[in-house]
Amino acid sequence: MKTFFSSSDIVQAHGVMLSDKKSFIGQPNIDFLGMKFVDGRYQPGPHITQELLKFQEENLTTKEIQQLLGIVNYIKDFIPECSRYTSQLSKLLKKSHHSGDKLRL
C-alpha cells in the first residue's frame, strides 16, 4: 500500500491526470501502447504483428516502406539484428524521390 501512495504522490506532483475508466490497480496483465505487459516482461500485442503480415513481399511504394519501417522500429527490441534488415529498406527510401514510386525488393 505504501508503494501505491508514493506513486500517487508522484503523479500528483507532476500534474499527471489519470482516468478512472482506464486506471486499474493490482492487475497481473496490462495492455499499453500496443505492448502487452505480463509478469514483469513485455511483448508486442498480436495486432502489431498482424499488421506486418498485411504487407506484400514485392513492389512496395515508398509510403508502404515507411509504414513497414515504422512498425518494425516500434518492435525492434524483439528482432535480433534488426538493423541488418532495416538498413536495406532505408537505403531504398534514399534512392526514391516520389512517394508513389513502386520499389522492387
TrEMBL record:
This is Polyprotein. It comes from the Eukaryota. PANTHER family: POL PROTEIN (PTHR33064), RIBONUCLEASE H (PTHR33064:SF37). It comes from Sesamum angolense. Gene3D superfamilies: 3.30.70.270.
